[in-house]
Design goal:
By secondary structure, the chain is of the alpha/beta class. It has two domains: 86 residues, 3-Layer(aba) Sandwich (Rossmann fold), CATH 3.40.50.10860; 134 residues, Rossmann fold (3-Layer(aba) Sandwich). It contains ten helices and eleven strands. It has a six-stranded parallel beta sheet. The structure holds NADP nicotinamide-adenine-dinucleotide phosphate. NADP nicotinamide-adenine-dinucleotide phosphate binds next to helix 10.
């Protein structure tokens, strides 16, 4: 077996940001500054961190961002009113409603209220449908699009490969299956999606040339589930107790990195793999949304 290669999501995301910055510069020459609005409901600590990281990246790239923080008890009506206002605002090209939302809010209804052309998170049913149809005029959700870019930019052949995705969530597993099965240059894989109802999940995993874990179970993927030489992508973000850590916990992925490293040929670290790419795709979608206003 050849040497192990780390798929460095931070470095790859920086090369995407470089391209995005150049596109922002071109837009600025045309007096357009891409604008992204974040909506955060309540004070979920992870959501605060995620929105904070995205705001910071906007500043670095030259995207204007604004963040609307609503109270945890906010009614559906006031959230929908805010979205309606942002839909009409010509300075706002992208709208991101940070999930998870408090229980009283209907997530599907909220996502569907964002104008599809401003839905840079790719969760509007129109964009979900376009992804399934292979219509590139829609916005693909950022995490699965980021996984595809990681594979492409690290030179991993996708066409003809056997891909196994662990997890059929609407944010990662399902859209990623859709992306990688398309009849197109950087896809064309044979995709198997495993979930809690799968019989012989480990057996499916062992057939994968590319194994992608997105189930949210800490360190679930062990070396005996991985074909020697396989490419492994770890999407999971899980907080586990750690008495040695300052705050008593630490983040780990769905893959037992240290153990699986001995078997796989290429693997994402976690953190430092898929996470930075998710943000890179969000920035890219926002700039594309701004560019498309020139076409109207
Ligand atoms: P989700 O909607 O909860 O979906 C999880 C999926 O995993 C479900 O299909 C579930 O099966 C399956 N599953 C759970 N436990 C399993 C087990 N023991 N065996 C087999 N299948 C199992 O989650 P998600 O939103 O797709 O997110 C998945 C993971 O990715 C989470 O850790 C999340 O934090 C992470 N994530 C990371 C990023 C990033 O930027 N890095 C972005 C988004 C999400 P059933 O359908 O049968 O219940």
């Amino acid at each position: 077996m050849g040497e192990f290669k780390l798929i460095d999501g931070r470095a790859i995301s920086e090369s995407v940001h470089l391209e995005t910055r150049q596109r922002v510069a071109v837009l600025k020459q045309k007096n357009i500054t891409p604008g992204l609005a974040f909506i955060r409901v309540g004070e979920d600590p992870a959501s605060r961190v995620y929105v904070g990281m995205k705001e910071k990246k906007c500043r670095e790239i030259g995207i204007t961002s604004q963040t609307h923080i609503l109270e945890k008890e906010t009614s559906g009506g006031s959230l929908l009113d805010l979205i309606a206002r942002l839909n009409k605002d010509p300075k706002i090209h992208g709208i991101l409603v940070q999930a998870p939302l408090p229980r009283q809010l209907n997530e599907a209804e909220v996502f569907a209220s964002v104008l599809p052309g401003k839905d840079v998170d790719g969760f509007h049913p129109v964009n979900v449908g376009k992804l399934m149809l292979g219509d590139p005029s829609g916005f693909a959700p950022c995490t699965p699009a980021g996984v595809q870019q990681l594979l492409i930019r690290s030179g991993c052949p996708i066409k003809g490969s056997d891909v196994v995705i662990l997890g059929r969530g609407n944010i990662v597993g399902k859209p990623l299956a859709s992306i990688l099965m398309q009849k197109s240059e950087f896809a064309d894989a044979t995709v198997t999606v495993c979930h809690s109802g799968t019989t012989d999940l480990a057996g499916h995993c062992r057939r994968a040339d590319i194994l992608i874990a997105a189930i949210g179970v800490p360190l679930f993927v062990k070396p005996d589930m991985v074909k020697p030489g396989a490419v492994v992508i770890d999407v999971g973000v899980n907080r586990i107790p750690d008495t040695a850590a300052r705050n008593g916990s630490r983040l780990v992925g769905d893959v037992d990195f240290e153990a699986v490293k001995a078997v796989s040929s290429m693997m994402t670290p976690n953190p430092g793999g898929v996470g930075p790419m998710t943000i890179a795709m969000l920035m890219q979608n926002t700039v594309r949304a701004a560019e498309e206003t020139l076409l109207n």
